Amino acid sequence: MEPTTPLTLATETAIEAKPKAHFWQIWNMCFGFFGIQFGWSLQMNNMSVIYEYLGAKPEQIPGLWLAAPMTGLIVQPIIGYLSDRTWHPRWGRRRPYFLVGAILSSLALFVMPNSPTVWIAAGTLWILDSCINISMEPFRAFVADNLSDKQRAFGYAMQSMFIGAAACIAGFLPGVLADYLNISRDKVAGGIPQNIMWSFYIGGIMFLGAVLYTVLRSREYPPVDPDWKKKLNAQHGTGFSGAVKEITHSIANMPMQMKRLAIVQFLTWPGLFLMWFYYSPAVAQDFFKGDPLAPNQSPLNILYTKGVEHAGATSAVLNLVTFLFAFSLPFWVGKFGRKMTHTFCLLLGGLGLISVGFVTDTSMLYLSMSMVGVAWASILSMPYSMLAGHLPENKIGIYMGIFNFFIVLPEIIASLFFGKIMENFLGNDRLLAVQIGGWLLVLAGFVCALIVKDKIKEDLL
Question: Using DSSP, how many helices (H) and how many strands (E) does the chain show?
Fold first, then answer.
């Protein structure tokens, strides 16, 4: 249990003192996540199959995904540190980072589908993930900055709604382009189908447009203390050494609630990564019996492409459920509390992933992924809602960046070692890897129920 401290009490008082935001203010501050998730979902749904189109083997896939966690580990705490120390009278604290990250991410989304080899695609992914993290990290702090603790659950649920909507559209997009706009499924010289290429181009436009909307339509609270920056810098100094000292100090002095949630996150996210690593290739090869290396228009190539599109469609339904369920999250939080709501959602999502291994009719994958969609809505909102009220107001950015460690560290471990597990112990069974992810979500749910606190006051008892 954490003792009551002046910092804790001041933080709680500051949170409650914030005026209530109306619906459209929250809408405007969260809408940029629609664009971020549009680009992110195109990457998540298609990178494994892009790698396989370019000749990667199943055991190589986890290592080729290493870009995402490594860039998050490095970029997010730095951006959090910098944004905590930024203030511009017109652009505010977090919004300059949204905009710069969106411009760079959009350019990278145009480059990615033109990769001619596996290693160029992997290198472009490093750049793309770095840029996405520049935009994404401040958005978590942005909601905490502008909403009281009572409204944060709704604010993060709104983010989940936009994430679900964007991911749903992104999942259906390659199939829609091929079936209704006559954009070919044939592979171009680099080995990537044209409908996937055009999906990335559209994603780049959507990313920039949505973030620009939030930048132009939102405002931020200015610092109350005119000496706020001097006081922050006085603690650990300035420049690179000051940043390192403050990040290190913040890690060593994490609030107890953050430590509890870190364990839950550390179990949750490997389950999701295994789904992203292997779900689409598993559907294409295990259910549709396709081959990514077969020649254009050959039966095996067509089957693989159809399988990828079916996986994308079921993932789109996952995100449609996320979009719809996010509306109900405030109701469930009011009825059961944030902790138990998150627990039930994790358990349901875990069962959904486990069920993939028992499905015989591919249409049942829609039900399996719908269960994961419920969990995804909660994963995107409840941990941040349970954490934000326990953080010092002047360090929300840096702590949100550090909290990301417990997402990216398990992915780094999975990226470095799961390929060997696939090759030596699982026989490259993609469906079994997805099921293991489900069991991790179930475990995370039980741990959440046992150790996480639901309110600030519970931590002060």
Answer: 18, 0
